[in-house]
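Exercise 7. Predict the joint structure of the components listed below.
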Amino acid sequence: MKRSGIGSTPLSGVGTARWYRPSDLTLPEQPDPSAVDSDAEQARFEDAQATARQQIEQARQQAAERVGEDEAAVFEAHLQFLDDPQLVDDIESAIGEGTPAEHAVDDRFGEAIAQFEGMDGRMAERADDLRDIRDRLLRSLLAVETVDLSALPAGTILLAERLTPSDTAELDPDSVAGIATVTGGRTSHAAIIARSLAIPAVVGVGEELTEIEEGADVLVDGEAGTVVVDPDEDERAAAGGVDAPVVEETVSTADGVEIEVAANIGGEAELDPAVARGADGIGLFRSEFLFLDRESPPDEAEQYDAITTALAAFPDDRVVVRTLDIGGDKAVPYLDLPEETNPFLGQRGIRLSLGAHSDLFETQLRALLRAAASEHGDDLAVMFPMATQIEEVAAAIERVESVAADLDGEGVDYAMPELGVMIETPAAAFLADSLAERLDFLSIGTNDLTQYVMAVDRENDAVADYHDPLHPAVLRAIDRTVSAADGNDAWVGMCGEMAGDPDLTALLVGLGLDELSMSAVTVPAVKQQVQETATSAARDLADDALACETRAEVLDVLDES
Ligand SMILES: C=C(OP(=O)(O)O)C(=O)O
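Solution:
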């Protein structure tokens, strides 16, 4: 049985279906108190407490090893809440009066959570801790299995309603043979991370996916965008995957124009695959991924290590680090970002760095400027996300200069990296010439640029058809950006997912991009395309595409090329 979705990582894998259902904690209906065996419920509660205690202790140990004792301290607080005499008393009295253990836990924790939510600042954050402990107890009482995403058995095909970016970042590419999700688009961050980890993925399959049973034999074909249960030999053999020889050197077009083909990464785990696939450096280091899935932000030393590790992996190539781009679909619970109706249009990227989280921006800039003075730091470049105003970019440059002055005053070694900006909003594309005048480079983020030009949520598979960078409006925004860079002696790259589609390489070369940066998995195929492209023909192709008024016409132009 074959189901179709959106092919996201163009690789295929076969394995055993495993459902990830993180939050199915629906309570059974509450029986009459007279029908409840209070002693048995008390014993169930004590067992659940013991299990939770053991899990929290284990989480504490892991956090201490991975991120340090300070971050692990939060679990001490969890242990105290778990044994809080008032809370435990209340739960046990409710059980004694004939309330089943799960209802007693849910009710009493619910009250405590509501109390904390009504308080200010740090106290309100305690509500999250209580939710965490309540959910641990409920999972144990309801026998809801928790799946440890970082320790899945080899050959797992992970099925889920949706995955968050941090869920996906936890996956071990050596054990996960594929991912398929009910919702999600090709440029959602979970899909992007899966691609960076080279995990075959199909997203946006729809409700049909839920019919696949736990333990089924499943093929995920990320090239064709299909999920097949019990695939036969022919289906396995036909499953797609981008396949091209790895070329380590920088490649040139057939007529000698050099194009850098770099990789996008979110963290250290993606460096080796990027090197192995012959990437010419890093065109986008999504530094915000260093901030996800933890209890507090990484400090200057940890960020410095992450940046210098990336520089050392590519000692002769450029490494472009994007400053913190949180907000949108990248939630960071410990930062207490405001709840917003339209988070993609709200406090994101540079807006937060210059506003509510200027402290984090300063720490990050210190780490970056110091890394620029490190052994391989000459090729470090830094870019700002989500800019819409010249004032923002001017303010960001000022911050860089003031951090440099501070480091200077402290006698700390630093150097100035190249500075650039992401072109991912229509405002930035319209202002590209003014931006290029002030900066060393522009990097086009087509995932967001398409989202904002087309007024389409990149996460929403119901409108996924609108999210197509081949729409003439997006192509014209790209063209405008490239011309602005050329006219101002700045280099121009593209780090949105469009750059990684080998079928579009000739078009992008024709549009005049100097650099293309993508999930490492497609680097070899894009390099191959660059080598087979002649720039004169590519320019004609781009001119024809730019003359189109509809996406259908653009597709016809590409088909005919
Ligand atoms: C590269 C981009 O940034 P991100 O996908 O991380 O938002 C983009 O928007 O194209």
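Discussion. Residues 3 and 227 are 5 Å apart (CA to CA).
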